[in-house]
Structure formats: C-alpha cells, structure tokens
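In this section we walk through a basic example: taking a raw amino acid sequence and producing a predicted 3D structure, encoded as discrete structure tokens. The instruction is simple. Fold the sequence below.
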Amino acid sequence: MRPDCGAAFQAADPLSSGSSRLKAGRISDALHCDSRWDAAGKWGVHPVTKRGSTRRWPILILVWSLTAIAVLPAIFHWTAPPPYAGSDRYLPIGLGYCVAAAICYGIYRAESRRLIRSQAILLVFVVFLLTGITNNLHGFNVDQATNYPPDPNRVWQNNLHNLVMRFSPEVLPHSYRFLPNSIVRWMQLAGIGFDSARDLYRLIVGLLLFYSIYKYARLYCNYTGALIAMLSVTAIYPVSFEHYAGQLTDPLSHLSFVLAFIFLETEEFALLLSTLLIGSLAKETVLAMAGYYLLFCRKEKNHPLKAAVLCLAGTAVYFGARLFVLHGTMHYSQVSGMVLGHVWDNWHNLVWPEPFLLTAGALLPFLALGWKETPLSLRRQAVFLLPVLFISSLFFGWLSEARNFMPLVFVLAVAAGVYLTRQFTDTFRPEAARETDTQPQPEIPVAKTWSRRILVHMKTAPLKSWILCLAVVPALLLALYLIERSGITVHRRAPGTPPTEIGSVDRAGDSKGAETVSTAEILYILGWAADTAKGAPVDRVMVDVDGISAGAATLGVVRRDVENYYSRSDYFNCGWSFQMSASKLSPGEHTVTATASGPSGTAQLGSSRTITIRADTDGGRK
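The resulting token sequence is shown next.
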C-alpha cells in the first residue's frame, strides 16, 4: 500500500509543519507519492492517496440522506409560517450561528492535525473574515439595491423564492434550481424570517466554500499559496455581484464546482458523481465537469465505464428536473428560460466585456507567466472552463452576469497562488529538498528591476499561451469595452424607422404601489425614457397630471430590466422618478402622463396611469 501522500506532504511542507528540517522517513514517504520540491522550494503536484472505499460509504449515505431531507419542502410545496416576533426570533437565528461556529471549530480541529496551532487559528480566521467580507458586500450592493423598481431586490428575492418553492414555470430556469431554496425554507419553517434565513444560508455555505478553496489550493501549493488563492477570489468576488438581483443559487453552485475540482484531482469518483448530481439541483452548469472527466481523465481505472455513468446520470438529472417541474412537457425555451433570439441580443449587449475582463481575465496573466510550471490539471481546467462557461452564458444565460465565470476564477486563483509562491518564496526551501530535486531548471537571469524581471519571464513563457491569454482575447474584449464606453454602439433598428423618444409611466401611487393615495401622503411616479438613437438618459422628462404640468422628473435611475429587454447597454440608466404631495390634488380620479424630450425630439411616454386621491380624515394617522 502506498503511504499517505497528504500526511507526507503536510509533514514535509515547512510552512505547514512549522519546521525547516525534514525527517528522512517523511521525505521517503513523500517521494513514494511521486512528488518533489520545485525550484522555488514548494512541494510540487502530488496525488492525494485514495482512502478506503469503506470509509466513503458512510459519508455518501449521510450526504444523500441530508439532500433527500433538504428537498422535502420543495417536493411537497411547504409554505413558510410567519416568523417569530420579539425576543423569540433570536433563538432559531442563534442556533444558525451556532452551526456556523461549529463549522469553524471543525475546520480548526481538522487543520490542527496538519498545521501548527497558530496557522490553524489563522486559517479559521481568514475563512471567516473573507466569508464575512464577501457577504457584507453582497448585502449592500445586491440585497439593498433595486434592480427591478419599485421594490428592492430583497423583496424580489422573496417573491422568487416562493415561486421556486411552487415549481412555477413563470420563473424558469430558477424553478429547476430548488435545492438552495429548500434549505432556506427549512430555516423559515424553524421560525426565521426570509432575510435572516438567506443570510444564514450564505454564511454557512460561504464558510464551506472558502475552506474548500483552501483545500483545493493545497493540492498544488503550500499554505501561503492557498491563502493567496483565497485572497484573490475575495478580491474578484464583488465584480460578480453586478447585473444580478441575488438569487440563492450561487453559493451552493460555486461550492459544488470547487468540490468537483478536488474530487477530480484526488480521483474520488463516488464523491465526484454525488457532487455533480446534487450540485446540479443548485445550478446545472456543474454537470459540464462530466465532460472534463470524459476528455482528461482517461488514465483513470475503468474510465469508459465511469465516464458513461457520469454522462448518463448527469443527463438524467438534468432533464429529469425539468420534466418534473414542467409535468412531462418541454421545448427549447423551457430548457433555461431563453429563446434562440436571445443569443444574438446577448452577444451584442456590450455590457458584458467589462465584468468578463475583471473576472475571467483578471488572473490569466499569472497562468500565462507560469504556464510551464503550472500543474497540468490546472491548465486543463482553465482551458476547458473558459469556453464552456462562456458558451453556456451566451446560449442559456447572460454574459453580463459575471457570477457565471466564478468557477474559472477559482482555478485561476489557485494558479496565481502557485505562481506567486514559486516566484517570491525561496526562504523556506530545505537543503534536503535541494538534494532530491534532480530536475533541470531553466536558467533565469537575475533582474535587478521589476520591469526587467517581467520581461525575462515573458521570454520564458510559451508563445502560444501569451497569444491566447494576453493578446487576442483581452485585446478584443478591451476594444469592445472602449467602444461601449465611448458611446459608439451599434444597435439594430428597423430600416426607415426614425429615431425617437420611448418609455412609459410604470407606476403611480403611494410608497407601497397602491393607486389610492391619501391627501396626507406622498404621490410617487416612476417610469423610464430613452432615445432610440443616443440611449439614456434623455434631456428631460416632464410629468403631467390631468394634462397640467406637475414638474420635471429626476433622471438617471438604473433600470437593468429595460436594458436587458432591449439589449441596449446604453439604456441601463433610463429610469426616472418623480414625487409630489398628494394634498396638491383634489379628491377623486386623476390621470398621470409624462413627456420625454431628447436629441430626437419630444414624445409622450406610453402607459398613462390613473390614480385616486382620497381625502384624509384621520389627520395622517393610520
């Protein structure tokens, strides 16, 4: 039996063990794992020994049992009771935070067997800190934002959540991704409100996600490199919050991707199969890793059979979930909620190059610079995921939603950790490793300045990787981004159609949207307006009540729904808002209209609204 590579790795890694001296027995065990120290003194790529299958079955049974329990609220359409009020609400919320604390303690217990105590404590702190930072930014930039006026995103999230729990065809493809919603519904059944349950779900899954990123990085680099990978992910994560309203799918979907990466490298087929099938109930994109296994894991024992099982099981779950939700009927637009014409509009919506560059392209230079030294599996995963995620977002999603590219970011973050630790950490390389390292290393001239050093590494990097990663694709995307920023956008318009001002009055009423407004309240009027030639905002929007001017509206409100509907990136801030005291209007019915003026002229906006003013009889008290 081969020795435990993971144990040998942890003992031999000075950054893990806290010692600069290697014991001969540990070195021998490590060498039996076909591993070696590289030129920069880091432990090289090594396969983690496969543990006995008898130890895996209890884990698999537990995972599948928990999954079966988790989906019960969705299967039986359980509705959430009213959340606990007063001090009673703190008990279930406190229990949720106890679960998060238990996860942190479990991480410490597991890692204290491999690391010195201070490093294990630091790891737990970093995992918790990065999770907290990410969730805090998400709460401020997404949950409290308003992508679909007039309601904030948290209201939209709750409405979507309830529709998903009923498997409603109105919110495809979200109804196929019901596992995260089922977990949140369990918390609601315990008396926790939706907002608190959502935050607890993101906290718990976020802790598991960042710890999994650490474990994934440790397959290829040392302790420092794994921390660099985690920090890199945290730096890029906020970009993925753009252009989406906070669906519950992402944390669990991203976790399933990282676990799939780990089990692919450690050759844990049963765990890989379970991860792909269960993860597809959070988001089906993870099933693409079955294609990776088919293409790149051909040396694994019984590969044809295992690949067939992965592909057939993934296909069965993919279509099974859709047929179950749709009650046995399905056409193309119901596969992901998109129609074929969406592909053209998606590609020509020039909002996507910027977030794409800042996520999928942000860490590509590290992969290109260290291409030869980057482990083969990381290179394969990056080359596989880039086109797969892009094509998937093009045909079945939105290219502007950079969250779809985060699985690629995880891989590139680990590659960045490998590269940076190899380039700038030579202090901890033990002499014993130098003696056992017989591989010839490329001679890199000593450079005294950073600019010279970068040029030296550019010369040693493969030409093809530089052309692919740092020339053609980023240059094209950057050109598209500059065109979009400069306002030189090309949009389809029917031949002979003159440019004009378009828009509508979407809502008129009180703060809750009711069209009956008391004279003691404020009348709110919302809508959008754009110029078909120049985009938005227009020059001016005037609001009229019964044909009499009430004033000018405030322009520049973000309207992602209009932007996506028209596939016009220059419509993103086409919204406008107006408010006035209802006491200025007489009791009874009134008609609200609006007129937009812009470069192409003046036009009345569609969808006038009728409101009813009610005389206040209680002095403004309700």
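Looking at the output, two observations stand out. The chain has a mean pLDDT of 80. The first strand starts at residue 501 and ends at 509. In the next section we compare this with other chains.
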